[in-house]
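Subject: sequence -> structure tokens, single chain

Hey, anyone have a minute? Need the predicted structure for the following. Not urgent.
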Amino acid sequence: MLELGEPDAISHDQRVLAYHTSRPVAFWVVAAGYGAAGGTIDQVRSLVISFDEHGIVQSRQANSQVPGVLVNSQFKDTPDAVLGSAISSISNEVVRISAIAEWIPDFEQTSWKVAFGTRGRLLLTDSTLYWLTAEQPANTPPGLALNYNSISDCKLGKSVGLTWIILRTTAGRVHTLKLWKTYWPDNAMTKQAAEFIQSKIDPLPSVPHER
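Reply:
Had a minute. Here:
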């Protein structure tokens, strides 16, 4: 920990640590008519360290990879690359934030040691928080739909370098949401999503002081 810092992922039995970094090494652009799309070609480096029951290192595996343009455009760490085509709107509202998210209903995560929830997609519009499964049919209701007026509190949980969102509703339910890149926790997007939700939650009315 002192040498490498906090890991990006830890197994439930605490016997496997994983580190992950990426940096752009090239850019690609595809132009069509008056529009264009582009992205980066990233060098992805990972280190996985395994320990035995006594905490002694048993194996360590380091990888460095620079995917090609076509591979990179398909598997880059974006929600659309993993969970199907892009969703730009839902219920006639523009999607402001879209991210891969793991939803654990009726559970408040207090540390990284927790059973995994169900992987899907988090969609935030100006009025509602949606969570859809990866195979969500277009004509079925989302697994979770919370109007911001029904959320009483939104806060971040953090442990061992991982960050997640905890939501409390006015009905007394609690939900944990963990945001991901393709294979790694996305702490930056988690904070951005939490700040967006917090900005939409109606503040409690102030109580006038008695004189």
